[in-house]
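Support reply, case 0932

Customer input (verbatim):
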Amino acid sequence: MIRIFQDYQTLSEMAAQAIVTIGLQCLEDRGKFELVLSGGSTPKQAYSLLGRQWEHKRRLWENTQVYWSDERCVLPDDSRSNFMMARQSFLDTVRIPADNIHRIHGEADDPHVEAKCYEVEFPPRPDLLLLGIGTDGHTASLFPHSTALEEQTRKFLAVQTPAEPPSRITITPKGIACASEIMVLVSGTNKANAVQQVFAETGNILETPARIVHNAIWLMDKEAAQKITKTILIET
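Our regenerated output:
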């Protein structure tokens, strides 16, 4: 499903609302909500809105288990850390219990060992996995031509990427496939070409890794969606 919004602010508001709606339904059905966060700049506003507009949903946040799709190999207080971004914009505000926060230890001496440990800690079927897309079509830290794209056994791997910082720990296609629901947030004109490649009739995941999740729920602003076939759009 693709939903297109007028601008980044509206996209962020609707993403925050969708996260809460899914979370409340999981809480009603199972008594808990397993949420996998994305890094990058696009979800930051949605996270902040969760903290500002949905802070009062105490029972939801007290029963939310938080995980990450990927992490940079940096200290947890580094400005480049995905954990740090989520903590400052969202987690501290809604006061999710510390025991419910399952971060990837990017500062670990051996990222390969940490990837294996995180794979054990990661839930078998998380309720909601948030992802984004880069200008080159990467998602999580699965970059074009990464050998991790062909991984069929492991759910998390330590990888070297062309981005800064290069050392990262990322979810694999097998890990992505475990999620009950996947939501991809995309904003900006600079993402339009990558989005076009995701939904093109021909292409492959080695060139455009985000094609892995082309059947997910996509929330985009009009700038990001400007080059995809209009017949598949649902305007909001």
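We compared this against your earlier run and they match. Two observations from our side: The beta strands are 2-5, 33-37, 64-68, 70-72, 128-131, 156-160, 167-171, 182-186, 217-221, 234-235. The chain has a mean pLDDT of 95. Please reopen the case if you see a mismatch on your end.
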